[in-house]
Amino acid sequence: MINTAVSIKNVKKTYGEVEALHNINVDVSEGELFGFIGPDGAGKTSLFRILVTLLLPTEGAASIFDMDVVKDFKKLRRILGYMPGRFSLYQDLTVEENLNFFATTFGTTIKENYYLIESIYKQIEPFKKRRAGALSGGMKQKLALSCALIHKPRLLVLDEPTTGVDAVSRSEFWDMLGNLKKMGITVVVSTPYMDEAGLCDRVALIQKGRLLSVDTPQNIMNGYDEDLWAVRSKNIYKLIEDLRQLEEVSSAFPFGEYVHVSTPPDRINQKMIENLLEKKGHDTVEVKKIGATIEDCFMKLMKN
Amino acid sequence: MKRFFGFVTKEFYHIFRDVRTILILFGMPIAQILIFGYVITNEIKDVNIAVLDHSKDEVTREITDKLLSSGYFILNKKLETNDQIQEEFEKGDIREVIIFGDNFARKLQKEKAADVQIITDASDANTANLVRNYTQAIINDYVKEKNATILQPARLVPEIRMLFNPELKGTYMYVPGTMAMILMLISAMMTSITIAREKEMGTMEVLLVSPLRPAQIILGKVAPYVMLSFANAVSIIVLGYFVFGVPVQGSLVLLLAESLLFITLALSLGILISTVSTGQQMAMFISMFALMLPTILLSGFIFPIENMPEILQWLTLIMPPRWFITIIKNIMVKGTGLLFVWKETLILVGITLVFIVLSVRNFKIRLE
Amino acid sequence: MAGENGYIVDVKELTKKFGNFIANDRLTFNVSPGEIFGFLGANGAGKTTAIKILCGLSSPTSGEATIAGYNVYRETEKIKQNIGYMSQQFSLYEDLTVYENFRFYGGIYGLSRKVIRKRTEELLHELNMEKVKNRVIHSLPLGWKQKLAFSVAIIHQPKLIFLDEPTSGVDPITRRQFWEMIYKTAQDGITVFITTHYMDEAEYCGRVSIMAEGKIKAIGSPNDLKSQYDAHNMNDLFIKLVRN
Asked: Which domain holds residue B352?
C-alpha cells in the first residue's frame, strides 16, 4: 500500500474579502511528483504556504505524513524542504556559504547528504566562491534547490521554481526533479507553464482558487470532450477571426504555428473545415485532427 | 549550539560585506562623538562680563584682575547699583555679572567667608555653564593661593544664580549623551533593520520553515550586534577620555556592565520594532521616530528635563536613555557606585524585560 | 520613418563590454517595420543588455545601431520619443485609475489633453474596457492590467514597441488574447520586439533570433530555423542551440 504524503481537506483561505483558496481537496501519495498548474493569482503560493506551515488555513485541514500542518508544525519543519517563489537565499553570501548555512541550520553537513545534491551541485560547484547574487537565473535555481535538499527532506515543496527561467534551464531542472523522485523524495511543485504538466505523475489544474481537475496528465488530456483540430494558413490573424465566425467552432486559439480549433464531437470533418476556409479566401490551408494538450484542457475548463 | 554559531557566522558575513553597515557601525560613533565633543565645546574666550563691586578693596580688585588677565573675560562695564544688573542683561551685551559683597576683604579675613555672587545669562545654557565654571575655578584658584600664605584657610563659596534657566542641569555631558544615542542607534536600529531585511528578501520564509526556533533566530541575529555595540561603548569611553579628557571617576566594570544592560535593552527594542515592520524602510522609520528623536530630545541629553513642560517631564520617565544617562553621568563624572544608581538600573532592567516579553509574543512563527 | 535601408531596427557588429566581460558580442540583425520579432535567449545571454542599448538607455562599446533611423549613441532622446516599452515588472500605477494612468503616460510623451482623451477612448474600445475607465488599477484582475499596460505603452503611437516577457504568469486564455493584441498592433504598422520564455509564443513571431553567451546563434523565421536545425518545435530548437 502506498502511503499518503500530503492530504488537503476542504482547505479555504481568505484574506479579508478576497477568497484565495476555495475548498481545496487533494491527496498526494508518497514518492509522487505532483504538479499544481495554473497562472499567477490562482492561489498556488497560498496553498503551498499552508502546506509548509507558514500560513493557517481559514477553514479545513491539511496534513503531511499524518502530521497536521497547524498542530505539528515543529515536527514538520524538520522534514520539509521548501523553495519559495522568490529567490530566497542570501545574495551577499557565496554559493558555498549559503549551502553551509542551510546545512548547519538543519543540523547536518554538506558531506553527509552530498550524494543527494551531487548531480545538481556539481554544476555550480565551479562557482562556489561567487556571491549568490551574481549567479545567473538557472544557477540560482540550482543553488536554491541544493539548499532545500541538503537536509534530506521527505517532502520537497517547490513554488514556481521555473518561472522566468529559460527553456534549457527549465528542462534541466525537471530532469533533476525526476532524479529526486527516483530517490524516493515526494515532490510537490507549482508552475505557470502548462507544457511542464506532462513531466509530473499527476497534476492539479488550478485557477482563481479552485481546482479545475486533478488527475494524471494523460487522463486529463484524454478527457477532452470535443474534437480538436490544428489549422494553419498564411494569415494566422485572419484565420482566427474567420474560424470564430463559423457556427461549428466552439473556440479557436493560436497554438504555436497552428490554430487549435475545438468543435463539438463528430460535428464536422477535416474536409469540411478546409472547404469553409477556402470559401473565406484562405489558400494553402492545412487541417489535421489532434489530441488535446494540457493547455487545451486548461482553457476549456477555465471557460466552464 | 552549532546551529547558533552557524547563524552568527552568517550574520557577521552580512555585516562585513555591506559597506553601509560597516560605516554606520564604526564610522558613525566616532563621527558623532567628535562632532558633539567639538560642538559642545568646553573652550570659552573673550566673554563680556560686568562687575558690581560693593567693596572696592584690595581683594576684590585682585580677583577682578585675575579674572580679566586669564584671557577668558573682557570687562564690559563696571556697575554701581543692583538695578543695573537686569538692565545690562536685557541689553544682551554681557554674559555674566560678578557681584562682590560689601567689606569683602575684611569679612574674608575676619569671618573667613565673604560673599561673591555670579549671575550668568543662561539663555544659552551651555555657554552659561562654562562661564560659570571658569569663573568659579579662577576664584577658587585665588583662594587657594591666598590660603598658602595664611595659616587659617578662608572659605570663599560663590553664590551662583542662573538667570533665565535657574537650575542649569544636564548640559555638560555630551559623552554620556552621545553614548546613549549611539548605542540606541546601533543596537535598536541595526537589529530591527537586519531582521526586517530577512523578511523583505524572503529569506525569513525559509528560516521559519527550518527547525530553528524563533529564539535561535533572534539570538543569532542579535549576538553579533551585542558584541559590536559593546565594542562601540568601549571606544566611546576611550575617545572621551583621550580626546576630550572626560575621566571615569567611578568603577569601570560597573560602567561597562551598565552599558551592556543598556545595549540589551536597545536590542530588545530593535527586535520589537522588527516584529511590527514589514520591511527595512519601515523599520528604519520607526527607529528614527521612536528612538532617535526621543533619545535626543527627551533624555535630558541636550535639553534639561527640569525646563520641560510637565507633560514632557512625565514622558521622560519612560525614556530609557534618560536613566542610562543619569547612571553613566553618576559613574563617570561623580564617581558614585551602584549604591547611588541601583534605582535607575532597576528601571532599565524592568524596561528590558517588558521589551523582551513583548517581542517574543509578537514574533510570528508564521507569515501574516 | 525607418532608417536609410528601410529597417526600423538596424544593428551592425554591436558590442557591449563590462570590463573584461563581453555581454553582447558583435550582434548584427535588422527588423523591418510591422514585423513581430522574437528576441529569445538563455538567462544571462545578454538580451537585457541589448534591449537597454536599443531603447537608448545605455551606450554600446562599439558597433552601429539605429532605431527608427536614430543613432543609439547620439539620438537617444529621439529614440525614446519613438518607442514604447512594457515589461512584466513595469506596470501601471496601482493607486491611480485607468484613465489617470493613460493621462500620465500620455503627458510624458507630450500629448495634448484632447489627444489623450481620444487615444484612451480608442484603446479602451479595442479592449472592450470602456466601463473600467474610472476604476482604480488595483481592483482589476492581472490579465486586464497586462492588457491595459500594453495599451498605455502604445498611447503615443510609437513606431516600435519593446515587450519584455509581457505574458509571464498570465493564464493561457489571457495570454492568447494578449497575442491577438500584438497581431493587431503589428497590422497597424507598429513593429513589435518581444522577449518570452514561452517557446510556443516564439512560433507566433515572424522572425526570431536566439542568443546564447552574448552572441546571436541563429536568426530567421521559426519554420526556416526548425528545418535548418532539424527540430520539431521551437523548444527543441532552443535547447539545441543554447546547449552547444
From this structure: 2-39+172-362
B207 CB within 8 Å of a chain A CB: yes
Count how many domains chain C has: 1
Q: What is the CA B280 to chain-centroid distance, rounded?
A: 29
Whether residues B6 and B74 fall in one domain: no
The whole-number mean pLDDT for each consecutive block of 10 residues of chain B, a chain of 368 residues, reads 88 90 83 73 74 86 86 85 84 85 82 81 73 80 70 55 42 70 85 90 89 87 90 86 77 92 92 89 86 78 74 86 87 80 92 90 81
From C45, C168, C171, residue closest to A164, measured CB to CB: C168
Q: Residues B178, B284: one domain?
A: yes
Q: Do chains B and A touch (3 or more CB pairs under 8 A)?
A: yes
> Is 0.95 exceeded by the ipTM?
no
Touching C: A residues 91-150, CB under 8 Å: 136-138
Q: Is A54 on the interface with B (CB under 8 A)?
A: yes
Q: Chains A and C: how many Cβ contacts under 8 Å?
A: 92
Neighboring chain C residues of A236 at a CB cutoff of 8 Å: 183, 204
Given B163, B182, B213, the domain boundary residue is B163
Could you tell me which chain B residue has the CA closest to the CA of A151?
A: B210
- Domain annotation covers residue B112: yes
Measure the CA angle with vertex B247, ends B245 and B251; round to 5°.
160
List domains and CATH numbers for chain A.
4-221 (3.40.50.300), 224-303 (3.30.70.100)
Which residue of A36, A44, A166 is the best one to mutate when testing the C interface, meaning the one whose CB has the most C CBs within 10 A? A166
**C224 is in which domain, residue-wise?**
9-243
Chain A interface, mutation test: which of B13, B210, B216, B364, most A Cβ atoms within 10 Å?
B210
Q: Is B141 a domain residue?
A: yes
Q: How far apart are CA C203 and CA C131, in angstroms?
A: 34
In a domain, B368, yes or no: no
Instruction: Decide which of B121, B140, B163 is a domain's last residue.
Output: B163
Taking alpha carbons only, the member of A75, A158, A91 closest to residue A120 is: A158
Is residue B53 in a domain? yes
- Contact state of C42 with A257 under an 8 Å Cβ cutoff: no
- Report which secondary-structure segment, H or E, holds B268: helix B252-276
Burial per residue of B80-104, b for 16 or more beta-carbon CB atoms within 10 angstroms, e otherwise: eeeeebeebbeeeebbbbbbbbebb
State the pairing for strand pair C70-71/C62-67. Answer: antiparallel
